[in-house]
Amino acid sequence: MLNIDTTPTEIIDYLNVSFHRLLLGHVDSGKTSLAKALSTTASTASFDKNPQSQERGITLDLGFSSLLVEMPNHLKDLDVRKNMQFTLVDCPGHASLIRTIIGGSQIIDMMILVIDVVKGMQTQTAECLVIGEITCQKMVVVLNKVDLLPEMKRAVLIEKMSKKMKLTLASSIFKDSPIVSIAASPGGLEDPTRGSSVGITELIEALRKFAFIPKRHVSSPFLLAVDHCFAIRGQGSVMTGTILQGAVNINDVIEIPQLQVTKKVKSMQMFRQPVVRAVQGDRVGICVTQFDPKTLERGMLCQPGHISKILSAIVSAKKIKYFKDSIKTKERFHISLGYETVMAKVTIFGVPRQTHDKKDSGRVEETDFNFDREYKYQDELISEVQADRSDETDVEAPQQQFALLEFDKPVLAVPKCLVIGSKLDKDIYTNTCRLAFHGTLLTGFDDKSYTTTILPRLKVYKEKCKTGIVERLTSENDVIVIKMFKKETNLQVFIGLKVFLTTGEEGIIDSSFGQSGKVKVHIPGGLKDSTVIYINNYSTRKKAKSNPLETAIKTEHVKVIMNMKKYVFDLHKKIAQT
């Protein structure tokens, strides 16, 4: 039983490097068995302690355990600490639990992808691979259940599956990932005659060789992802989780933002060791008093005021290459931020790429969102493949893309947190990726009137083009234009806007002309002689109503074109030109 009641002399500093590895894979690939085989210390939430998990035989929640290893040789010169504490985060593999997986993926340094060597890559395995590509840079592949392969063909079949995995990973950031074959639980957990695990020593060595010293941001505001909460009689309530950033000390005041309450830290432990301080990357149990643990199953702890509820947000947006459907403006997606997943409507927009640097792949730095900049409205999110082929297609590749998210309900949001958009309502039994896009939360809005108080500051425009025909001249500097506007159009909005003629002249809409939607266009520099002749000939032929065939050949008209921008969030539907 976890004992938080300690005296100051018993409290020690934690001297091991914390390193988090996430176990991901398809349901029943053996992740929990592997966690058991690897672990030397179990936490209060590990190995399917959830009663439903035990009843159904599958993992339903995040499980945490740890393995203490000697500091790898290649890291000894980089850190004075002697050991590394590998925290193993066991994620559920069932497709319907993808929300939990996304939450767990945001607290890791490296991924362990567990593959059933008999079945190979499966649908949820592929989704886990996508999550890994978004959240971390390193991975170890484990081919589990090798004991189920015929002994005579085992080596050949393992080699065949290893080659398949290398081919699958060839175009990903994990192309150099080591592949280790094991049998975490030969014969199954329920087999009383089962033998000991196979290949675990080799796997631990591979994990040590592939480890690195994670970068920790200790000076950032404190933030902890809570995954378990329980009471200890006579001591208080314990909230366990992983510190995502910053640090926490005994007697610090921390906030539980979803409940809007603050508490003082009474004591702390890390894997049964009392500590006075914990930093980013550490898995810690924090004891507070006068708190009902039933009110908090999962959520966040933070420095007071660091997290707030928002109704809308602007995020950077990048389409996941495995998502086959289009991501369209006004479409609704499941949005995952931390441990929360809510529905939201998306509006896509981007930074236009200038013609002269169309090949430039540079991106705008993801810091605070710039409201002073202009952005172009997009009907859909452009993928990297579409952008690379923009020279061959009509697709205009933006320099960087963003999404405005409008949530169905308020959601707790951490500044600059990872955001993943998904279609979790898709059939889980179809062989399709449900993860659609990802990005970083750049700014959030908590004002209930954000559509009228904040969005008008967002300069997102649609490019519009209106075309008309010169009907006749009224002078060498003025022409009457038809078919540019409808009869009911409010022409006052367009007075003073620039136009150009297909013959090269530039003009300005001067006034309306009559009641049928005609306008008078003034040409400050005057019309060319050739244009005057052309327009007069057209007008004469039009009046003469000559032979239809002759008209089709000889009476091409002079077009008048007006390019403009319409700002989609402007309350007055303002129109502008460059």
TrEMBL record:
GO terms for biological process: selenocysteine incorporation. The keyword Disulfide bond does not apply. InterPro entries: eEFSec_C, eEFSec_III, EF-Tu_GTPase, EFTu-like_2, P-loop_NTPase, T_Tr_GTP-bd_dom, Transl_B-barrel_sf. One of its GO terms (molecular function) is GTPase activity. One of its GO terms (cellular component) is cytoplasm. Keywords: Cytoplasm, GTP-binding, Hydrolase, Methylation, Nucleotide-binding, Nucleus, Phosphoprotein, Protein biosynthesis. It holds the Pfam family GTP_EFTU. Coiled coil: none annotated. Its main location: cytoplasm. Its cofactor is Mg(2+); Mn(2+). Residues 16-215 form the Tr-type G domain. It is found in: Cytoplasm; Nucleus. SUPFAM superfamilies: P-loop containing nucleoside triphosphate hydrolases, Translation proteins. It catalyses: GTP + H2O = GDP + phosphate + H(+). The keyword Cell inner membrane does not apply. Translation factor required for the incorporation of the rare amino acid selenocysteine encoded by UGA codons. Replaces the eRF1-eRF3-GTP ternary complex for the insertion of selenocysteine directed by the UGA codon. Insertion of selenocysteine at UGA codons is mediated by SECISBP2 and EEFSEC: SECISBP2 (1) specifically binds the SECIS sequence once the 80S ribosome encounters an in-frame UGA codon and (2) contacts the RPS27A/eS31 of the 40S ribosome before ribosome stalling. This is Selenocysteine-specific elongation factor. It comes from Timema tahoe.
